[in-house]
Amino acid sequence: MQDSFFTNPTNRSDSWIQKIDRQQGKIVLTWNDSHHSLFHHIWLRDNCTCTQCGDRSGGHRYQELRSIDPDIAADEISVDSAGSLQIKWAGDGHITSYAPAWLRAHCYAAESIGKRRQQPMTWDSNLSDEIPEWEYDRIEADPAICLQMMQQIKDYGFAIINGVPIEECQIERLADIFGYIRQTHYGRVFDLISTPQQRILAQTSHAIRPHNDELFRDPIPGLFMMHCLRASECGGGASILVDGFRAAENIRAQDSELFELLCQVPIPHQRFLVDEVDDVALSARWSTIELDRLGDIAAVHINERTMAPLDVGESLTEPVYRALREILALVYAPEACVEYRLEPGQAVIMDNHRVLHARTAFNGSRHIRQCHVDRDEFFSRLRALHRRLVSAS
Fold first, then answer.
1. From CA 391, how far away is CA 393, in angstroms rounded?
2. Which of 90, 125, 128, 263 could crosslink 75 through cysteines, CB 3.0-4.6 Å?
3. What residues does 37 pair with on adjacent strands?
4. How far apart are CA 348 and CA 354, in angstroms?
């Protein structure tokens, strides 16, 4: 999972160009820490952000790739008094300037790409004794505290927040920190109240196994939030979290063939409901483990309750069932589970593409309000907040 947005392109102590070596079609920069960065001429010309070429980062791009000569060459290369790289291009004499910190932050040497890859902090039941928690009033009052909490969600996949007012509107207010609430057939917010007249298992008092939410949707909801208004007064109802990334890595280490099956074979999920207003007929297919282009685990999609009948072909049916049994055994195991009790005034936010959630059985009544926010909005706000605080420091 590659992510470079925590690089500070405006204040890097290693971003001073010490030497420039010109080669055919490219240049090699040596930095003050002896790191080497190779940049191809075509890449440098394509990333010009002058007023004539425009800046694609904000969608204001005028230059088109086809307008650049694939054999473009630099006529003159220099470093100005501010340390910026200046290139005058052969042919049209166009001049491009690159801030050294920007170049270093976008170095595409293998070593630099590796350092920018996100390294999730995987966990198991040993985290139970030191679950990090956050205070709602501090998150709202201090952007730096809010950023730390959001970074925890990025690294660990979840956060627990205390002191959320016990009012029905508070989950909307909390969700506003992370993005926009996603509307579904449940509405913007779903009131999970235990009742004998349930539509889904979550509305009962039965135990629920660890799972990701809404795998019958495309796209799958990103962040899942629960705010407790009333906990069971008769005991039980403990919440459980499981790190799907850790289970996936364990499968990869134990059996590469089963791991490949879980990565490659899409599993069907469905939800059919007869509603007083609208009938629901949702269906989607997802691999149990999703990898990014670098082979890092990007998502885990597990929900035994919503799996539709497998239609993976005769030769794969038994191997896929074997692979599913293995990963289910890992995420259901007590040693994988972090258990806590969500009390009134507490909220939990989790990455639904990574963290599985569950609960134990309970007696009495319970009222949880829940909603979803898409991951792109969450990561956008995380990046924006980081940039704002870094630029102000």
1. 6
2. 90
3. 29
4. 14
- What is the arithmetic mean of pLDDT over 83-107? 96
Q: pLDDT tens for residues 327-379? A: 999 999 999 999 999 999 999 999 999 999 999 987 878 899 999 999 999 99
Q: If you search the block for the tokens 């962040």, which residue do you land on?
A: 223
Element (H, E) at 115: helix 110-116
* Residue found by looking up tokens 């925590």 in the block: 6
Q: How far apart are CA 9 and CA 32, in angstroms?
A: 16
Question: In sequence order, what are the beta bridge partners of 202?
Answer: none
Q: Do 7 and 15 touch, CB atoms closer than 8 A? A: no
Please give the model's pTM, rounded to 2 decimal places: 0.90
**How remote is the C-alpha of 353 from its chain's centroid?**
7
The chain-wide mean pLDDT, for the chain, equals 92
pLDDT at residue 281 greater than cutoff 80 = yes
Give me Rg for the CA atoms of the chain.
Answer: 25
By the 8 A CB rule, do 41 and 103 touch?
no
Question: In the prediction, which pLDDT does 4 show?
Answer: 42
Whether 11 has a pLDDT exceeding 60, the answer reads no
Burial class (CB in 10 A: 0-12, 13-18, 19+), 151: middle
Whole-Å CA distances, 193 to 172, 181, 190, 234, 347:
18, 20, 9, 15, 16
Q: What is the largest CA-CA distance in the chain?
A: 80
Pairing assessment for the beta strands 85-89 and 95-98 based on DSSP bridges? antiparallel
Phi and psi, residue 245, nearest 5°: -65, -40
Tokens standing for 128? Answer: 């139970």
Q: Rounded CA gap, 276 and 301, in Å?
A: 30
Which domains can be identified in the chain, with CATH numbers?
Answer: 17-116 (3.30.2020.30), 125-389 (3.60.130.10)
User: Residue 217 carries which side chain, given as an amino acid letter?
Assistant: R
CB atoms within 10 A of CB 36: 13
Which residue type sits at 291? L
Nearest Cα residue to 303 out of 375, 352, 256, 265: 352
Alpha carbon distance 288, 302 (integer Å)? 6
- Residues 200-259 have pLDDT tens digits of 555 565 789 999 999 999 999 999 999 999 987 767 778 999 999 999 999 999 999 999
- Which range (49-53, 98-102, 313-317, 359-363) has the least confidence? 359-363
Residue 73: both structure tokens together: 């060459």
